[in-house]
Amino acid sequence: MDNFEKLKEMKTLHEFETYALDESLSGHGKLYFSAGACTKSTPRYNEDAFHKYRIRPRVLRDVSEPKIDCKVLNSSVSCPIGISPVGLQVLAHQDAESATAKGQLAILHSLPRNLEDPSVTFEDLKWVIENSKLPVIAKGILSGEDARRVVECGISAIIVSNHGSRLLERVVPTIDVLKEVVDAVSETGTEVYLDGGVRSGSDVFISLALGAKAVFIGRPAIWGLSLGGENGVRKILQILKDELFMTMQVAGVRHIEDIQRSMIIRT
Ligand SMILES: Cc1cc2nc3c(=O)[nH]c(=O)nc-3n(C[C@H](O)[C@H](O)[C@H](O)COP(=O)(O)O)c2cc1C
């Protein structure tokens, strides 16, 4: 079966992951994209944490045609799902980042490497914000206190992220701290996004209910890229969109902004 046929067959992100690890990624790619902080295999803290949350549906709402379009940083987007920066994508596909970008237009770019210097402080962030013509988004925030500090620096938005659990062994799962970050900055109107472990439409729904304005995916885009380049990335996003649409329908929600915190229970 060629890649085109295989792509048509794929129904879930889990299937993409299995195929990427068994077939479509090279040995080097598999190691690089799967590695955790101290392990060769992907830590599942983020994914596992999502499984502790349950959705409480509403009844008797007209959900014949849920709407998943929304606004992110004042721009209209077709769905609240984007792609996080992942390095060395050429290890997944020859067309690398350009194919990922074509698969989806809203893609994050990470700050230059020198901002990953361990001596960087809030003062440096302030300098970047003051000297940037683009909105600056703080990625890697995991506490309410840090969220308040970056907002004071003038940040445009926050991404609750642990960089895919690649840097710190036993790092806190992102979904577990989302609420704290959202609450810490809610009065400032700063948008909060989340990445880490988003693998299904239910994960997107839970994140939005807990206050994220949008979610981003890292590894799943790579799995799609490795199988079908630009079309693979597009298929990954289409699966998430379709699953979000269906989750909204069954949960009795018509618009993204009607997804509420009271619809989520942590078990
Ligand atoms: C192989 C790999 C490389 C990454 N490179 C970067 C990077 O250069 N800059 C960055 O901010 N995040 C980087 N990340 C983290 C992602 O942007 C994102 O936070 C994470 O992958 C989201 O989790 P997920 O893979 O579970 O969706 C990388 C992640 C992976 C898996």
Overview of this protein structure:
43% of the residues lie in helices and 12% in strands. The protein is built from ten helices and nine strands. Strands 4-8-7-6-5 form a five-stranded parallel sheet. A two-stranded antiparallel sheet has the order 1-9. A two-stranded antiparallel ribbon has the order 2-3. Helix 2 (13-24) packs antiparallel against helix 10 and helix 5 (96-103) packs parallel to helix 10 (219-251). The radius of gyration is 18 Å and the shape is globular. Residues 32-33, 46, 84-87, 110, 139, 161, 163-164, 166, 195-198, 217-219 line the site of flavin mononucleotide (FMN). The site of flavin mononucleotide has 20 residues, from helix 3.
In summary, what is this structure?
With 267 residues, this protein is an alpha/beta fold. It has helices at 3-9, 13-24, 27-34, 45-50, 96-103, 122-130, 144-153, 174-185, 201-209, 219-251; strands at 53-55, 70-72, 75-77, 81-83, 137-141, 157-160, 191-195, 214-217, 264-266.
